[in-house]
Automatic annotation (TrEMBL):
Gene3D superfamilies: Creatinase/methionine aminopeptidase superfamily, Creatinase/prolidase N-terminal domain. This is Xaa-Pro aminopeptidase. InterPro entries: Creatin/AminoP/Spt16_N (IPR029149), Creatinase/aminopeptidase-like (IPR036005), Creatinase_N (IPR000587), Pept_M24 (IPR000994), Pept_M24_MAP (IPR001714), Peptidase_M24B (IPR050659), Peptidase_M24B_aminopep-P_CS (IPR001131). Keywords: Aminopeptidase, Hydrolase, Metal-binding, Protease. The keyword Protease applies. The lineage of its organism: Bacteria, Bacillati, Bacillota, Negativicutes, Selenomonadales. Residues 137-341 form the Peptidase M24 domain.
């Protein structure tokens, strides 16, 4: 697996005219080496691969990154990287332009002193778009953990409970089931706060008859899940039912259009058009979905500005339409969907019908 990823990386280097690449983005360190620590750099050329770290991680790195020569730095990580570059005689060095700090960039230029050119900014994230079998299984597991947490929370949540209590319960349940940590800051937005798409949990108490939107995820072996469900704690009124039905129909429409060759813009536009027919398009202000993996937000995306002209098999996207009305509240429903050779497979299994909770 790591050998295949390194082969793809080396092909990328040739295409970009680089002798070697310096990798410092943590998820890419993990992806290309298998190492799960921090404070580390990778240097990869056509025929060599170095992992630079300090004493805390040398043993771990030797176990997790068998394809790499481990270099223990004692006088500074970036200084050590420059020393390796000069020793190897590499002249054209690529670096992650979307990840390196300016101070580190400046230090590398100073350390290399004209012996090598540190002037090829690249993004390696595109090499992670198509997932292999192991990655898909890890994401499946992360999704199953978040599904179980949702099943648990609907038997637990009740009026008078704070949003923070709800978030804590879900995070605890996901930990119990094997999640390394929350995939992101858990969102729990009740009542009028539901109009905040990223309304993280607060001390607000849940009132009977309110919608509660919960957006959360698990992390399994570094890979993320992402699910959103909106439930009514108590009995829903007619307006709540009407808007929930519209969001659900939009979510189902979006999922039905996910398949190989589909355009991210077109899928987003179809759902946006459905909302426009009912006069709610102005209340849907974010993209329809994004991919996920080692990061919670990855390419490809489903949005008006999507760069994805053709979805490919073994990519993933979320489908998460929402309607957010200031002063009233909001609804979002989100699944994670795997693009297959024949079409697509929703990985999220949690019920999407309107749930009224009377605990």
């Amino acid at each position: 697996m790591i050998e295949e990823r390194l082969a793809g990386l080396r092909s990328f280097l040739r295409e970009n005219g680089a002798d070697a690449v310096l990798i410092n983005k943590e998820v890419n360190l993990h992806y290309f080496s298998g190492f799960r620590g921090d404070d580390t750099l990778l240097l990869v050329s056509a025929d060599k691969a170095f992992l630079l770290t300090d004493f805390r991680y040398t043993e771990q790195a030797a176990e997790q990154a068998a394809e790499f020569e481990i270099v223990e730095q004692k006088h500074g990580l970036w200084k050590e990287a420059a020393a390796v570059i000069k020793k190897e005689g590499w002249k054209q060095i690529a670096f992650e332009g979307n990840a390196i700090l300016f101070n580190n960039y400046s230090q590398m230029e100073k350390e290399l002193r004209g012996e090598a050119s540190f002037a090829i900014p690249v993004s390696l994230d595109s090499l992670r778009v198509i997932k292999d079998e192991n990655e898909i299984e890890y994401i499946r597991k992360a999704v199953s953990i978040s599904d179980a947490a949702f099943e648990d929370i609907i038997s637990y949540i009740k009026p008078g409970m704070s949003e923070i209590e709800v978030a804590a319960r879900m995070e605890q349940k996901m930990r119990e089931l094997g999640s390394e940590r929350p995939a992101f800051t858990t969102i729990v937005a009740s009542g009028a706060r539901g109009s905040l798409p990223h309304g993280v949990a607060t001390e607000k108490l849940i009132v009977s008859g309110e919608f509660v939107t919960m957006d959360f995820g698990a992390v399994y072996k570094g890979y993320h899940s992402d699910i959103t469900r909106t439930v009514c704690v108590g009995k829903a009124d007619e307006k709540q039912k009407e808007i929930y039905s519209l969001v659900l129909n939009g979510q189902l429409l979006g999922e039905s259009l996910v398949k190989p060759g589909a355009s991210g813009k077109q899928i987003d536009a179809a759902v946006r058009g459905l909302f426009a027919e009912k006069g709610y398009e102005k209340y849907f202000g974010h993209g329809l979905g994004h991919s996920l993996g080692l990061e919670i937000h990855e390419e490809p995306r489903l949005s008006p500005s999507s760069l994805c002209e053709h979805l490919e098999p073994n990519t993933l996207v979320t489908v998460e339409p929402g309607i957010y009305i200031p002063g009233w509240g909001g609804i979002r429903i989100e699944d994670t969907v795997l693009v297959t050779a024949e079409g697509s497979e929703p990985l999220t299994r949690s019920d999407k019908k309107l749930i009224e909770i009377f605990n």
